[in-house]
Q: What sequence folds into this?
């Protein structure tokens, strides 16, 4: 009997270890399956045209490659804001408190509308300026330069990208949905942080490529010749995105 009891205990230990090993194998298998999904969804979300794309494009065309890269870096840091409140569980507040989501939605819409109107004013001021130097008007200076008066110019470009993304509730909804439906709360925090860093890095890399493309020396002279029309077009895009943002519905409880 004692011998049988010892065998039973060893069998129980063996079964427990096998269960833990199987659990670890399933966890590793889940992680291996989750990464391709996260990469695919993030890639499709990042390359979709939106306010971020419009701001990087305009800044790269009208300013410089460095300015466009700073906007891209600001966008990536804006993503980290959404990641932080999602990982801390604050993203659930957007589901439980509809007024909070509404406030974020209206703030983001107002910011995009303000940027769109500023581009329209710049386009009008640029169109009426003669080729020779003319007295400065309140709107003859680009909006990014006016923003730079409150601090270093580099920070103004970074702030432009940061606010464009951080005030966008669509990014908050994307990250919240990704982490609740694909990643799941049972995944270890280091892995969730790795997902978050990947999403932010993907934004920076993509928009850095966009900035490099639209700041090419072959493009800028041609675009500068039609600058008023470019500003009006992008202004309309930002105004339209701001209006569409108002129609975004609050996230439902999952």
A:
């Amino acid at each position: 009997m004692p011998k049988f009891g010892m065998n039973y205990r060893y069998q129980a230990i063996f079964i427990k270890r096998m269960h833990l090993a199987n659990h670890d194998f399933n966890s590793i298998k889940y992680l291996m399956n989750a990464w391709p999904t996260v990469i695919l969804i993030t890639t499709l979300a990042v390359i979709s045209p939106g306010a971020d794309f419009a701001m990087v494009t305009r800044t790269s065309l009208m300013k410089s490659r460095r300015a466009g890269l700073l906007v891209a870096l600001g966008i990536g840091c804006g993503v980290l804001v959404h990641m932080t409140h999602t990982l801390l569980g604050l993203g659930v507040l957007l589901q439980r408190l509809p007024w909070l989501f509404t406030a974020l939605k209206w703030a983001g819409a107002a910011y995009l509308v303000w940027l769109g109107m500023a581009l329209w004013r710049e386009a009008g001021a640029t169109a009426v300026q003669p080729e020779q130097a003319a007295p400065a008007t309140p709107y003859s200076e680009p909006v990014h330069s006016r923003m730079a008066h409150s601090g270093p110019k580099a920070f103004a470009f970074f702030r432009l990208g940061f606010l464009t993304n951080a005030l966008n509730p669509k990014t908050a909804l994307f990250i919240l949905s990704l982490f609740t439906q694909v990643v799941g709360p049972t995944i270890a925090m280091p892995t969730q942080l790795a997902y978050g860093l990947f999403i932010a890095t993907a934004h920076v890399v993509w928009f850095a490529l966009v900035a490099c493309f639209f700041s090419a020396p072959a493009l800028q002279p041609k675009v500068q010749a039609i600058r008023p029309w470019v500003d009006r077009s992008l202004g309309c895009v930002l105004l339209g995105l701001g209006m569409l943002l108002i129609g975004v519905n609050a996230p439902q409880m999952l």
The chain has one domain: 33-246.
